[in-house]
Amino acid sequence: MAKTATAYKEKMKELSVLSLICSCFYPESQNKLVREFEDMEVKPINKRASGQAFEVILKPPSPVSDVAHNLPSPPKRDISLEDIEKKLEAAEERRKYQEAQVLRVLAEKREHERDVLLKAMEENSNFSKMAEERLQVKMDQIKENRDALLAAMIERLQEKERHAAVVRKNKELREELTA
């Protein structure tokens, strides 16, 4: 604390010296629109392109101001056992209410999670059923196409066999006629 006070006093001396030097170089700005507040003094410096500059000088704390800042604490009233018990009961009720709120929120979250899971399972089973039905229809169509293709091939083979039988018969007749 003593170091801080000493550093503060040194800074005040430096600022005062700097202010004195500046006032020597710029006498026209000396004491123009000087504003004084409770614990500081504000002097405007030459106007700049970016705005306005100010010099702020802090006043050292006075012993009178220390007394003014130390406000007396309000008198303590006697607290009875009943008051303490009422406060404890109120605190217990608040704790129970907060605990109930937390449990209610958790229950709502669990209910929501369960609903989401049930919906996901239902959608998954519906998707599985639809996929199974599509696969069955596709398999039936493939089987019908295969059966139709086999029937067409057998029909062609029988047609060739009949044609071959006719050709053989004609050949035999020619041979008999030529013999």
Number of strands: 3
Task: List the strand order in the largest sheet.
Answer: 1-2-3
List low-pLDDT spans: none
Order of helices and strands: HEEEHH
Largest sheet geometry: 3 strands, antiparallel
Count every helix, treating DSSP H or I runs of 4 or more residues as helices: 3
Which percent range describes the beta-strand content? 5-15%
Description:
- This protein has 179 residues and is mainly α.
- The protein has 3 helices and 3 strands, in the order αβββαα.
- A 3-stranded antiparallel beta sheet has the order 1-2-3, covered by helices on one side.
Task: Describe this structure in a few short sentences.
The longest helix has 98 residues, at 81-178. The protein is built from 3 helices and 3 strands, in the order αβββαα. The protein is mainly alpha-helical.
Task: Itemize the secondary structure elements and their pairings.
Layout: H1 2-25, E1 35-36, E2 40-44, E3 54-58, H2 63-69, H3 81-178
Antiparallel strand pairs: 1-2, 2-3
List its salient traits.
mainly alpha; 179 residues
